[in-house]
Amino acid sequence: MHRVQDLGARTRGVWTRAAALRVASPAVVRARVASGTWQRPWPGVYADGGLVLDAEQRAFAAVLASGGEDQPRRDAQGRVRLRALACGRTAARVHGFVLIDDDDPVTGAREHLQDEVAGWEHGRHLGQLPGPVLRRRQPVLEDGDLALAPSGLWLTSRARTVADCAGLLSSEALVCLVDDALHRGLVPLAELERRAEGARSPVLGQALLLADARAESPGETLARLLLRRVLPGLVPQVRVRDRAGRIVARVDLGDEVLRLAVEMDGRRGHAGWARVADDHRRDAGTTALGWRTERGTWWDVRRGQAAFVRRVLTRAGHAAA
Are 14 and 53 in contact (CB under 8 A)? Predict the structure, then answer.
């Protein structure tokens, strides 16, 4: 690499100060940062100004800020090792896992500002909440814990990332992550069970007991967790059939004994008037078969839980009558 325009060519458009100084003077580097031509995600790491870094680019920035350039390397004992790799929430974003507290319009949660990197030695954490924070950890990694993305980014494997998130996320956020990962087939349940038992992780073990691979959205998972103690018969993705056995609807949560359905809207509102009309038509069809439907929103399961439970229980009473 001998030109400024080649910086970041092997690291998704993110590069270190050391790499920049190989092709430009300190004065040029300072001028580009001062003018906004370059941005500085972390000390000693740059990217083009105005670029909104995606999950993988942010992971590269965190790894490079932790000494993870030109990996693998040899340590003092001559062993070939990785100096830094993405883990925790940072790896979860690259793997595409659901993180409900990364950016929640209802609760105001902003965990997208938090990143984690694993390395062969402890490092000083960067930043401070409520701003961006980069935590550097020194975990014990085993066979099967590492993954290499096509871009060249080193990160923890999917299963190890889920296990690590058990120590970082709230219990409901962890179940949402596990539900989604199982539903999309990103991680085998048996592998997560093995890790929960091997690591003696009661948090992950409890999340696996509550998880359900049939769940199709975080809102559906949160509603199920909220209602499970008062209406244990509600299960995900129930098919409602007419008297001839034909499927007339598939509901987010349903209790076939009570003929009760709970439907959840998306976390940022409903998908337009056409979707609302479809919902009304479907509700009319299930009502004709003796079902009652209560609809919930992201607000209901994040802030208005008590009122939502009361509404569903009232609807359940109507259904049972």
Answer: yes
Q: Write out the residue range of the structural domain in which residue 42 sits.
A: 1-47
The answer to whether residues 253 and 291 touch, using CB atoms and an 8 Å cutoff, is: no
For the chain, the domain total comes to 3
Query: 228-236: long-range contacts (C-beta < 8 A, 24 or more apart)?
Result: 230/309, 230/312, 230/313, 231/255, 231/258, 231/260, 231/312, 231/313, 231/316, 233/257, 233/258, 234/260, 234/262, 236/212
Residue 257 and residue 301 share a domain: yes
For 64-107, the pLDDT digits (tens) are 999 999 888 777 777 778 999 999 999 999 999 999 999 999 99
Distances in whole angstroms, Cα of residue 297 to Cα of each of 41, 98, 105, 180, 316: 35, 18, 12, 19, 18
Report the distance separating Cα 296 and Cα 311, nearest Å: 9
Q: Are residues 102 and 114 in contact, defined by beta-carbon separation less than 8 angstroms?
A: no
The pTM of the full predicted model, rounded to 2 decimals, is 0.91
> Domain check: are 103 and 16 in the same one?
no
Question: Kindly report the CA angle at 47 between 128 and 24, in degrees rounded to 5?
Answer: 115
